[in-house]
Amino acid sequence: MSGIDRSPREMNFTLKDLETKNLAQSMPPLSEIPLSFYILAFSFFGTVIGGIFFIRYLHKKKMEDGLSKLAKDQAQLVVDSEFESRNLEDVDREFFLELTNTKDPAKHVPIIMSSKKFEDTVLVYKESQRFKNSNLDKIYMLRKGLQFTFKNTKADFICTQMLEPGTHLECQILLKDKNVVFISNVLDSNEIELLLKPPKVKNRPANMKQFTELHCKIRRENDADYEFQLKIIGQLVRDLNAVILEHTTNIRRLHIRNSERLQLDLKMEFEITTGRKFEMDQQIELGKSDYAKLPGIIKDMSAGGIKIELKELPSDGINREDVFIFHLPHASLRQKLAVSVIDVIPHEGVSDIHCEFRDLDMLTRMKINQFLHRRKLNMEAA
Questions:
Q1: Which of 16, 66, 148, 354 has its CA 20 to 30 A from that of 258?
Q2: Given this model, what pLDDT does residue 316 score?
Q3: Domains and CATH numbers, the chain
């Protein structure tokens, strides 16, 4: 009627037209989100993160426990191996655990391998409430069982408890402003005291109780010289005549050195042979073989060797490694001494033969030093 079309018109409107265009529009306002949602969300993420770290911790701990067990097993293997190689008795092994106050083999290894750490452990034990006087013998036997003795050059010489019976010592005492030197040997020892053979005066044991201490020196081959002082605490005079000395840990280590060289001008008749023949004759007592004789003069001597002066050389000459054999008078030596030629120096119609001693044991070296010391005193007094 008015020219307007009022008939129904088709519309293209669907539910998709009600969907939000982005995520922010789909979320309700923050003020409308309940607190419980935040709590649950943080709890969930915290649990996940904590679980990750806990799993990593368990894995790391498992690895550490595995490495710790491996190290412990290896340390125990070392301990057992050392005990077996040293033939340590079961009773000593049991006391070792008591002494160290631990069953951890990792702590046992350094004590077994070091005499110093062993003695430190002994000192701690003696000062602890666990110590018993009845265990003193066990300490002494354990030290010996672990081979912490003076003869074992791998063990540091820490205390005189390491000296075994039969060990020779060079001893000195001060008598009327003079040093009296004598050789003695250890008769017996325990953890507390040391028994030493006294020197003889007019074929009778000297009274050592009049002195307060004894100065001692000892050499360990391929190692060093050691000196120490032992306090005299008594003397046995009946069944076993022995000086009773108190042990010490105050030991001074010295570099091995020969004694000073002393001018002698001592006439001597030598026996001479080649080094090879001498080596072959070592099974025979020294001095029993028949060698060529040769007169000469010992011009000087030390504990390391001698210098010989010869006016005439043998027909076949003298070569390096040749051996001179001789008896040193007034030196209290039962056997003859042997020296090897290291150099021949001719001059002014004579020849100087420089030699070094062969195969000297500690006792022989001590007696040579004593001989030189007496000669020096006599020369100074003359």
A1: 148
A2: 86
A3: 51-148 (no CATH), 160-254 (2.30.110.10), 262-381 (2.40.10.220)
